[in-house]
């Protein structure tokens, strides 16, 4: 949340080890979303209503500028979940270090119609025209995912609305729901309670079964208290994802200081548990993303917050470089293990786009990428970046495009393929060929890509942020100064690197002590 000039990040954290368990709400603060000061935990198990766990939730800024947190408490060994609240002990403390959990908790308890062991992650509250606050809680009944809706006049006494705001059969449990308005035009964000014209709503859920995040764009019928996805939004496992890679449990918030909505997600480890224990940490926050509705009205666009650019240091540039089939050009002069790379590719014709196999129609993009990887020669593509590459390409994580001709239209596949990211061969490592399709107009015959590379993570944004993919990778050769970065083409259509800008990225101040605080 943003409050009185300070960004607050609360995150699920185990203070006793780098494996899941003993979860508290760790708390860090920042004035720029880049440099962070860690504080003592904001919320931790201490009362009868959260003795067995303090799980996820959300912050809401109430009238008179008063922050309040709704969070899920675990009350017994059977995993029974209730919704509690916490408020700052001292509003004049700029960091809001201490939080109080009053004795009128819990505020919301599951009734008999709710699966009380799958009932969690309350959203930021929004205020309706009728003067009632509303919040959603993620749940499941059988295999039907639910966004259960509650309303309250005073944020204290909550009543369940008879029907969920939305539900979808066959999706499994909905975690970390997020519900917010977006403007039809422009990139500005809106407060959750915004009730003006020319808006749509977005419902995002994290699916427990697939471990991906999905969203739809639609209409919020405030009279009936129902959300109706647009017909252009597939509602389920085949729907749009926030990110097609290792990205989960995201949360968005409205930032009034810059009139934007920011989404922030978590990227879990995909190496072995033993590795996590050895290194002493597990799980990272990705780079915060500004998000808005694409002009088509069909999907979101996401882009790293502008503050990230303050970490840019040495810059190098390439332009008008041709890549014939099999070519690769090394990008030298920056630190490839810690870099920000923006590149625009062009091609003179779409004629060589290979046909899209009708047998792939029911496959996920990830499956197609596994079949048509970066080493499989194509027509128009594969072309893109080889990130975190060793000198002789024993290790590399390619991020690339491949264009298919699908009957009367073109289909753009974007991949971030971890399958060759490391020579380490532990069977428990997760090294998928993450992929998504990019809904982009190819009349300009250009495709753009931005990749943020940071040692064990590659966050990529295709076509200006229409398709995003985060990969966690663990090279053993392509590390530190031994990492390399290339642009490549493995298709018969010649590709031109119109422009490539790459920066060495500096280190933010993170987990730094109060003694060095600029506050």
Automatic annotation (TrEMBL):
Residues 307-503 form the Glycosyl hydrolase family 32 C-terminal domain. The keyword Hydrolase applies. GO terms for molecular function: hydrolase activity, hydrolyzing O-glycosyl compounds. Keywords: Glycosidase, Hydrolase. Residues 1-304 form the Glycosyl hydrolase family 32 N-terminal domain. GO terms for biological process: carbohydrate metabolic process. May be present in two forms, a 70 kDa monomer and a heterodimer of the 30 kDa and 38 kDa subunits. The ratio of the levels of the two forms within cells appears to be regulated developmentally. Belongs to the glycosyl hydrolase 32 family. This is Beta-fructofuranosidase. It comes from Solanum pinnatisectum (tansyleaf nightshade).
């Amino acid at each position: 949340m943003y409050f009185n000039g300070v960004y607050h990040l609360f995150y699920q954290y185990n203070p006793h080890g780098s494996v899941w368990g003993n979860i508290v709400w760790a708390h860090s603060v920042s004035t720029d979303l880049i440099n962070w000061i860690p504080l003592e935990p904001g919320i931790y198990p201490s009362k009868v209503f959260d003795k067995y766990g303090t799980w996820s939730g959300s912050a809401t800024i109430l009238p008179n500028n008063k922050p309040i947190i709704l969070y899920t408490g675990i009350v017994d060994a059977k995993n029974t979940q209730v919704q509690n609240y916490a408020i700052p002990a001292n509003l004049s403390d700029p960091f809001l270090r201490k939080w109080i959990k009053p004795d009128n908790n819990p505020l919301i308890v599951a009734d008999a119609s709710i699966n009380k062991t799958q009932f969690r992650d309350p959203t930021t509250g929004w205020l309706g025209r009728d003067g009632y606050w509303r919040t959603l809680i993620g749940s499941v009944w059988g295999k039907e995912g639910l966004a259960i809706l509650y309303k309250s006049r005073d944020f204290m006494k909550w009543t369940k609305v008879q029907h969920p705001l939305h539900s979808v059969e066959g999706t499994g449990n909905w975690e970390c729901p997020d519900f917010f308005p977006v403007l039809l035009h422009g990139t500005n964000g809106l407060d959750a309670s915004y009730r003006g014209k020319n808006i749509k709503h977005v419902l995002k859920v994290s699916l427990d079964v697939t471990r991906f995040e999905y969203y739809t764009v639609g209409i919020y019928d405030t009279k009936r208290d129902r959300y109706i996805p647009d017909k252009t939004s597939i509602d389920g496992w085949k729907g749009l994802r926030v990110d097609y890679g290792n990205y989960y449990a995201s949360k968005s918030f409205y930032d009034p200081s810059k009139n934007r909505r920011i989404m922030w997600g978590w990227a879990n480890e995909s190496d072995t548990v033993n590795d996590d224990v050895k290194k002493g940490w597990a799980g990272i926050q990705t780079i915060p993303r500004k998000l808005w509705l694409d002009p088509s009205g069909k999907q979101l666009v996401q882009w790293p917050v502008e503050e990230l650019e303050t970490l840019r240091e040495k810059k190098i540039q390439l332009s008008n470089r041709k890549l014939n089939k099999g070519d690769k050009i090394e990008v030298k002069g920056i630190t490839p293990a810690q870099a920000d790379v923006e590149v625009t590719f062009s091609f003179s014709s779409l004629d060589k786009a290979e046909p899209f196999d009708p047998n792939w129609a029911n496959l996920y993009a990830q499956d197609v990428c596994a079949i048509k990887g970066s080493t499989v020669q194509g027509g128009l593509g594969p072309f893109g970046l080889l990130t975190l590459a060793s000198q002789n390409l024993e290790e590399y994580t390619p991020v690339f495009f491949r264009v298919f001709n699908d009957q009367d239209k073109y289909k753009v596949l974007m991949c971030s393929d971890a399958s060759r990211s490391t020579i380490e061969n532990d069977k428990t490592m997760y090294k998928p060929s993450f992929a998504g399709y990019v809904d982009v107009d190819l009349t300009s015959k250009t495709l753009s890509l931005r990749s943020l590379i940071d040692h064990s993570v590659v966050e990529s944004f295709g076509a200006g942020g229409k398709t995003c993919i985060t990969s966690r990778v663990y090279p053993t050769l392509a590390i530190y100064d031994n990492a390399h970065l290339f642009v490549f083409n493995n298709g018969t259509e010649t590709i031109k690197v119109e422009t490539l800008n790459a920066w060495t990225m500096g280190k933010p101040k993170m987990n730094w002590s109060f003694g060095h605080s600029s506050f």
